[in-house]
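Go through the following before class.
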Amino acid sequence: MQQPAHPCILTIAGSDSGGGAGIQADLKTMTVLGGFGMSVVTALTAQNGLGVTGIHAPEPAFVAQQLSTVLDGFPVAAAKTGMLFSAPIIEAVADGLASKNFPLVVDPVSVSQSGHALLREDAVAALIARILPLADLLTPNRPEAEMLTGMAIDSETDVAVAMERILAMGPRAVLIKGGHFDSGDTLVDWLGVPGAAPVPLPQPRVETPNNHGTGCTLSAAIATHLGLGCDLDTAVRRAQAYLHLCLEKSYAPGRGTGPVNHAAPWEQNRTL
């Protein structure tokens, strides 16, 4: 299939009924950055800015059917995964992506910002065994990297050790995000590939209470830029810049923690 003017970018993730994270954040990001967003819904959440009140997951066979139908109908240029929830759903997704011919960004979502578990404990092994080897880039935050490696990550040296352990699990690259580190006014994400030292990617920290959906937005932005033809380093840096602007312009549309402002670049350059 020929790629359309706007490359087809696929998100395989959970739905956020509050609109700030998950599928909703991904599709907004893909659209603003020039992609055509498509989705495979792995879970439905009852969620708002105050937290997650419930989760309903479809049958794994229906997740597989969504995925096969999208892959059959569209020339996917890149994809990302987010909330995968359970081992059977992970198995269904991994089987469907086994012969993929496009880059895959894996965001190993495990806990919501409000502290609600989004990945069952018995699904971690399946995530490591089936999804990580398919990842062209894995984007864990500090708690997720600690979950995957079984070690505390408190220093730059720890980052390097954790990255080496994660790369041994199969992903072709890892981005350990710096948002959960206490690094003052500067936030540092660390990008690593096998056989090379981690590359620090610093940026100014944005002080805002409205940071819902940051991980989803970053991984969706990276996938979109990869689908647009960027190399990995460029895709990550451009995604960082996009998220930074979205955080600067974030706001709370309802009660509780608000989302990043996915429309920030459009608002900044608005013409009617």
User: Anything to note?
Assistant: The chain has one domain: 8-268.
